[in-house]
Amino acid sequence: MSILEETKFLMKKYHINANKNLGQNFLIDDETVDNIISAANIQPNDLIIEIGPGLGTLTARLLEKASKVIAIELDNEMITILQDRFQFYNNFELIHQDVLKVNLKQKITENANNISSVKIVANLPYYITTPIIMKLLEEHLPIESITVMVQKEVADRLTATPGKKNTGAITYCISYYCEAQEVLFVPNTSFLPSPEVNSAVIHLLIRKNPPVIVRDETFFFRVIQASFMQRRKTLLNGLSNSNIAPKDTLKQMLKDLQLDENIRGETLDLQQFSQISNYLTKSNGDIDNF
Ligand code: SAM
User: Which of 122, 129, 258, 271 is deepest in the core (most CB within 10 A)?
Assistant: First the structure.
C-alpha cells in the first residue's frame, strides 16, 4: 500500500478531517518519507523523539529502525489512531500532551539505558515551529540531531549564514547551537491537505562546543534579539531603544570594536555579536566568571 492509500484509508476509517488549527498536513509521498528517514541517519540503538506523529506515517518507519520511539501528540483523534495502530509495539511510547509542556530532559533520562544517542525527527506543526526548535535548543537536551520538516521560507532562515542574506535572530541561535543544513525540498503536493506553501527538511547537528565564547548566553541572545527587533534601524539605535546599554556606552563600544556607527545588526556575524555582548557584560562589571 502506498502512503497516499494508507493515509486515505486511515482518514476514512477514523472519520478524520485534518485540523488546520493544529497544522495537520499529512505526508503522502513515499519518496519524501524515505528521504526524511535516511536524512535522520537512525541507528539501531537510537532513541527517537517524534513531535506530532499524526496518523503515524513517519512513526511506523521510525519504529522499524530505532531502539525506541517516543511520540508526542496533542490531538485526541490522532491519539486514538496511534494507540490502535502501534498497540503491539513494545518500543513505542505515546505522550498525549502539548510538546511545549513536555519535560523532555526527564523523558530522555528515564530512557537512557542502552541508548547510544537521542535524535528528534518530525514533520512539525508549522504554527509553532520556532518555539519548538527554541525549546529543543535552549533546554540543552542531550540530543545529537534534529531532522525536521518546516516551511521552505523558515528553512532558508534557519539554515542561513549569519551576516548574509535571509537571516533573523533565530539564524544566530541555530548557528550557535548547531551545524545546520537544508537537505530536501518538498513541494506542497506531498501533503494532504496540500498547504499553500512549499516545505523543506532541515538537519541540525548539535555542536559539542559553541563556535564562539560568550560570557552570558542569555544576554548574548538578548543583544541579537534587540538588534533584529527594529530591522531598519542601525545597531546603535536598536540596542539603545531596547535598553541594552546607554547610548554613550554603545558609541564607545562601536569605536573600541572598530565598527561603523551606522552599521546594521543583520550584517554582523556570530563572532562580532559575541564581542559586543562580552564587551557590554564586561562594562556591566560582570567579569568574575569569565
Ligand atoms: N507526522 C504526521 C505526518 O507527517 O503526516 C503529521 C504531521 S502534521 C504537519 C503536525 C502534527 O502535529 C499533527 O498531528 C498535529 O496534531 C500535531 N500537533 C500540533 N500541535 C501540537 C503540539 N502543540 N504538541 C504536539 N503535537 C502537536
Answer: 122
| Distance (Å, whole) CA 34 – CA 116 | 23
Among candidate residues 18, 94, 19, 7, the one with its CA nearest the CA of residue 50:
94
Cα 26 to middle of ligand 1, angstroms: 9
Cα 229 to Cα 90: distance, rounded to the nearest angstrom: 47
Least confident of 44-48, 162-166, 250-254: 162-166
Q: How many A from CA of 131 to the centre of ligand 1?
A: 14
Ligand 1 atom nearest residue 98's Cα: 24
Predicted TM-score (pTM) of this structure: 0.94
- The helix or strand, by DSSP H or E, that contains position 182, with its residue range, turns out to be strand 178-186
Closest CA to ligand 1's atom 6: 54
Do strands 145-151 and 199-206 pair parallel, antiparallel, or not at all (unpaired)? antiparallel
Dihedral sign for Cα atoms in the order 48, 146, 189, 52: positive
Q: Which residues pair with 268 in a beta bridge?
A: none
pLDDT per residue as tens digits for the range 89-107: 999 999 999 999 999 999 9
CA 290 to ligand 1 center in whole angstroms: 42
How many CB atoms within 10 Å of residue 172? Answer: 27
User: 288: how many CB neighbours lie within 10 A of its CB?
Assistant: 6
What cell was used for 232? 531598519
What's at 3, amino acid-wise? I
